[in-house]
Amino acid sequence: MAATSSQKSCDAIIPNLPFRKTDPSGFFRELQNLRADEAFCDVVVKGCEAGAPGISCHRVILSAHSSYFRAAFASPSQAKESQNTCLQLHDISSNNLTQLINYAYTSEIALDWSNIPSLLPDAVHLEMDSIVDACWEFLESNLNVDTCLKTWGIADNSLHRRPRLAEQAKAVAVAYFAHVVKQPDFLQLDLDKVQELIGADDLYVEQEATVLEAVVDWLCYDSASRAEHFSQMLQYVRLLEVSAEKRLDMAARLLSVNANAAATVVERGLDEDDYEIEYRPRKSDTYRNVILCLGGVFPTHLQFVAPTASLAWDWCRPPEPISHIVIGTAACVNEDEMFLVGGYGSSSACLRYDLLCDEWQSVAPMPALNIPKLAGWLEGRLYGVDCSGERGTVYGYDPSTEAWHCVTRVSKPGLRHEVALIVGGRLYIFAQRDGGNGAEIDNVVLVYEFKKNTWTELPPMPTPRQWFAVCATPQGLIYVVGGHRKNNDRLSCVEAYNPATNQWTNKCDMQKPRVGAGICALNGKLFVLGGHNSRSTEYLRDIEVYDEVANSWTFHNSQLKTGKEVMSCVVFTVHRELLPVLSRRSYTAQAVLVDKEAL
After folding, report:
1. Burial code of 502-535, b = ≥16 C-beta within 10 A, e = fewer?
2. 554 and 474 share a domain?
3. Nearest CA to 596 among 204, 315, 356?
4. What H or E segment, with its residue span, contains residue 445?
5. CB 44 within 8 A of CB 86
6. 3-state secondary structure of 598
7. pLDDT, one tens digit for every residue, the chain (599 residues)
8. What CATH number is attached to the domain comprising 82?
């Protein structure tokens, strides 16, 4: 029968749309009901324990969630067996198996620190990728000083190793050693992990006695099985740096556990010749981390700050020429080299400074239109961002070819006052897009995935602002501090972005509002330097230090010699023997601040 005109009209008006059920909860409830009634179940799965109860399931459901089950059920031995075939898994507990099978039927599972250490390897074994991904996401989003040792142990497991997460967790433990050794997790570490931790050259401790006490605590926790390892552990402790009083205290603790170990603590601390044979310099002993402040409102000023436990300071002069170091100059350090790019009036000129040789060299300029920002180094290349023009550009510099190249265009147009940094292998841009007409500042946060070549817009800062400072810490958080609102209201507020959870959290306010301050991370703390805090030209000299563990700010006893704002701050690791050499060089620029005890 031919279609009528009305039918044709209806066909034209009503499109053939697919039906999608937006709430799958009813479907999963039915699956659970079928399993509870053992309706159509065709396999029974058991855990590793003797006499473990069987769990009636559907092969097709398990196969949809697990490549392991799919392969097992497709094997000839399984295919030929009758319905309700029993499959026993000899490597997985009944408790974990129940959780994983429940997930297959509900698409829900509760993950926490009590089950992830055992659930993750079982999910890897069963090739349940969604559970594996969820476990890693949990670990990454909960990495902090209290969980770094657990995370390190899990991520460094040879059965399911996650190298980058393992390195991040270890870096947190190394940076916050004095805190993590007070946790029960440290006492439960195996021998290899403790040796790797206290043997790290970049282990940050203000006193070597902290390392000795940690070794003694670890030994006494299980003296029966650990006493034989004490001499092996002691080679990582710089006993000559520990006071005689502290060594005697530790020896007294060891006396009832291991008399030989107690004697070793005292005798090897006194026997300097024997000790030097086994001595391995620790970076914190041999090197000094120095904050270098460049450019700013007073472009000829370049200052060093060495923030160590001592607060006795001296002044000497910095490297030259510094004719290119101006307001807005971007700086980035790679081992013993520092790269400088741009600044107001300098366009995209680029310099390289060799700290050891005290040499400056002009390198290829970044092909930028305005004032580029350096984001950092990744896999041997330096990356910078220029957001001027209609669309910004990300550039990469290859030292082997000494050339810049265009990596990608920034996804959002019209950005300015941008700050760029590389964290966890990703490029982050924090910028401003002016609302105009007295409207509030419109902040934009973007992240670029190098491997995927994709941009993602992230949640904006909770407090709209401009002329703020941004820095990342070893715990993986990205801090935004200070700045001002559209009405010039100066800000002391601090907010932290967690890339793992894609969330912002409020942190303790600074003790002073700061606009255009310098910022860097050093020894597990944030240093915020200078800036200004009034509508007049009142430039600050003081330095505030943020303790990430205590969530508190304190003033450092040192100050910049000259107050300034809109400066770049970088951290150099300088050999202690090089510091007096630096102080004797005939520089012509402004002052260098160094710690007298480092000379």
Report:
1. eebeebeebebbbbbbbbbbbbbbbbbbbbbbee
2. yes
3. 315
4. strand 442-449
5. yes
6. helix
7. 444 444 444 444 444 545 444 555 666 677 777 777 777 888 888 888 887 788 888 888 888 889 899 888 886 655 544 444 888 888 888 899 999 988 888 888 888 898 999 999 999 999 999 899 999 988 988 888 888 999 999 999 877 888 889 988 898 888 888 889 998 999 999 999 999 999 887 788 878 888 989 988 998 888 888 878 887 887 788 877 788 788 888 888 877 776 766 776 666 654 444 444 344 556 665 556 778 777 666 534 444 444 433 222 332 333 444 444 556 678 888 877 888 887 665 566 788 887 666 677 888 888 876 677 888 898 889 998 888 767 788 999 998 898 999 999 988 877 877 889 999 889 999 988 755 555 667 888 999 999 889 999 999 999 988 889 999 988 889 999 998 887 778 899 999 999 988 999 999 999 999 988 889 888 788 999 888 886 556 788 888 999 988 899 999 887 877 777 777 888 876 655 555 444 443 332 222 333 322 22
8. 3.30.710.10
**Residues in contact with 462: Cβ distance below 8 Å, sequence separation at least 6, in sequence order:** 495, 504, 506
Whole-prediction pTM value? 0.67
Residue 568 pairs in a beta bridge with 294
With contact defined as beta carbons under 8 Å apart, do 178 and 205 qualify? yes
Tell whether 525 is covered by a domain. Answer: yes
Hey, what are 87's tokens?
Answer: 């499959």
- Report whether 541 contacts 559 (CB < 8 A): yes
Q: Please name the residues in contact with 484: beta carbons below 8 A apart, sequence gap of 6 or more.
A: 465, 466, 467, 490, 491, 513, 515
Check which CATH number belongs to the domain holding 499 and give it. 2.40.10
Q: Which domain holds residue 489?
A: 468-565
Shared domain check, 512 and 537: yes
The answer to the question of residue 84 being in a domain is yes
Q: Within 10 Å of residue 447's Cβ, how many Cβ atoms? A: 19
Q: Return the SS3 of 413.
A: strand
